[in-house]
Specification:
Helices cover about 85% and strands about 0% of the residues. The protein is built from four helices and no strands. It has helices at about 5-35, 40-70, 80-110, 120-150. Helix 1 (about 5-35) packs antiparallel against helix 4 and helix 2 packs antiparallel against helix 3 (about 80-110).
Length: about 150
């Protein structure tokens, strides 16, 4: 077994902690959003839940990127790390859309007493696409992390 540095250990720990927090929050809000497509109850639950999951997703992506930077800082770029960087960029852009377009829309509806009403079809389509990007991105990035760790052996 190859030895490792404490910097690598700490970086990988922070990186994986980001996945635990971020992917956990993404899974929760994605399931709520899926159930909320046809249910007033779950639409309202999604509006309330996103207030908790949104900051957790941002914390997760921050830790995942920071940990990757620490873990890989002395190894240089590889194709899989570059691909993971592209995925992280897409996740961040997707997060901006969800945080600065969708979240204010949901909060406004909640203030107006419409939190339990189904979302308009156009908004549902945009949110569904964002959730697919988010879920696929997080899982793909985690898969690449596993590959990168095992490739170092």
């Amino acid at each position: 077994m190859e030895s490792f540095t404490w910097k690598e250990f700490f970086g990988l720990f922070i990186h994986l902690a980001g996945f635990v927090i971020g992917l956990g929050a993404v899974t929760v809000i994605d399931l709520h959003g899926f159930l909320g497509r046809k249910s007033a109850y779950w639409t309202e639950a999604t509006t309330r839940t996103h207030k908790v999951t949104k900051p957790l997703i941002w914390l997760g992506i921050t830790l995942a990127v920071l940990g990757a930077w620490i873990f890989h800082s002395h190894h240089g770029w590889t194709f899989s790390l570059g691909l993971q960087a592209v995925i992280s960029t897409v996740l961040i852009m997707n997060g901006f859309f969800l945080s600065f377009k969708v979240s204010p829309f949901l909060l406004r509806r909640e203030r107006e007493g419409q939190a339990s009403e189904l979302l308009p079809p156009e908004m549902q389509k945009k949110i569904a696409l964002a959730f697919v990007l988010s879920f696929a991105g997080w899982w793909s990035a985690l898969l690449l992390t596993v590959y990168q760790v095992l490739a170092k052996r």
